[in-house]
Design a protein that fits this description.
- By secondary structure, the chain is an alpha+beta fold.
- It is about 50% helix and about 15% strand.
- It has 14 helices and eleven strands.
- The chain has helices at about 5-15, 20-30, 40-50, 60-80, 85-90, 95-105, 115-125, 130-135, 140-150, 165-180, 190-210, 215-220, 220-235, 290, and strands at about 55, 110, 150-155, 155-160, 190, 235-240, 245-250, 260-265, 270-275, 300-305, 310-315.
- The strands form three sheets. A six-stranded mixed beta sheet has the order 1-6-7-8-9-5.
- Strand 7 and strand 8 form a beta hairpin.
- The longest helix is centred in the N-terminal third of the chain and has 23 residues, at about 60-80.
- The radius of gyration is 23 Å and the shape is globular.
Length: about 325
């Protein structure tokens, strides 16, 4: 057995025995990332750990799409929804104002290539299939095919085909407004998706290393694993479509029993990246009143180490 393979096996044993911290998980993720093929979520996490400055990948795309939509909507709300405009149209329905905002930054007939591929095509991927079925009786694959077949590329733009009849154009126009105006609150990953992929990856590696993986022990330590991974992703960065730099940060939810999560800050917007069911108090030795101050804010406890009792804890950085 080669040295690298021996190290991977040793780290798997550390996980089974509950003796790991974030450094062990970091080294393991870096060592195994080239061996992964089908483990989509785990491979994404590995790339994040190896290269914390991201300009591609699942998390980057979700942040970039939602940031672009929110930015354009906010900018156009400021530009369009002036006091005079609202007063002049005070008898109009709410849909009139939302249409005014959405139509101002996108003209269905001609769309910049970069924005079309980000906000429309990637935007389709970011919306739940059930929403398309509910409002348009089409699944996500059908929506993407319909939109793609309605345009042709021309000198840096997507332009609607002249073969579209009036009914088809109106349907397309309404569909595109729905896509660019729908922003979901779903995370890029959930705790379950990461653990399932992590276990799948470890099973495959263990088979290659002739090691019998103890799945029960992996499940026993799954919360510790997730907290280590989130700690590693703290302070990761994203280069957004307009050159702005977004960042990922360890945070908590704002409910009575706050749970640990990973958020991203993109411009003035806070977006979800990874959600968990892990209670913050299980990993942060501080009063609940102090912990809850950091709901949807960057936690000062982001180093993941084991204390003298062998318990994994999030602690504040000490210079």
């Amino acid at each position: 057995m080669q040295k690298k393979e021996q190290k991977i096996k040793e780290r798997i044993l550390h996980i089974e025995n509950g003796l790991f911290d974030e450094d062990d998980i970091k080294l393991l993720l870096i060592e195994i990332r080239e061996k992964l093929k089908d483990e989509t979520f785990l491979k994404e996490i590995c790339h994040f750990v190896a290269h914390s400055e991201r300009n591609s990948g699942i998390c980057h795309k979700k942040v970039d799409v939602r940031y672009a939509k929110l930015k354009f909507i906010k900018d156009n709300q400021i530009q369009i929804l002036t006091k005079d405009f609202i007063e002049e149209n005070k008898h109009q329905p709410e849909s009139f104002f939302s249409d005014a905002v959405l139509n101002n930054y996108f003209k269905t007939e001609k769309i910049d290539k970069k924005l079309f591929e980000l906000i429309i095509l990637s935007g389709i991927d970011d919306i739940e299939n059930a929403l398309f079925l509910k409002y348009y009786k089409l699944n996500k694959t059908q929506v993407k095919k319909l939109v793609s077949n309605s345009y042709k590329k021309d000198n840096g733009y997507y332009i609607t085909k002249t073969t579209l009849n009036q009914h088809e154009f109106f349907f397309l126009d309404d569909l595109l407004k729905f896509i660019r105006g729908t922003i979901t609150g779903k995370p890029a990953f959930t705790q379950k998706e990461i653990i399932d992929d992590f276990t799948k990856g470890l099973k495959k590696l263990s088979t290659e290393l002739d090691h019998k993986l103890d799945l029960k022990k992996i499940q026993e330590h799954k919360n510790d694993l997730i907290v280590c991974i989130l700690s590693l992703l703290h302070d990761s960065t994203f280069t957004l479509f307009d050159g702005m730099i977004g960042s990922g940060f360890l945070s908590i939810t704002t409910d009575v029993n706050p749970r640990i999560c990973l958020k991203s800050e993109a411009g003035n917007f806070i977006l979800p990246l990874i959600t968990t069911e892990i209670k913050a108090q299980n990993y942060i030795d501080s009063d609940i009143e102090e912990i809850t101050k950091f709901g949807f804010r960057k936690l000062p406890w982001y180093n993941c180490i084991r204390n003298d009792k062998g318990e994994l804890k999030l602690i504040k950085y000490k210079a």
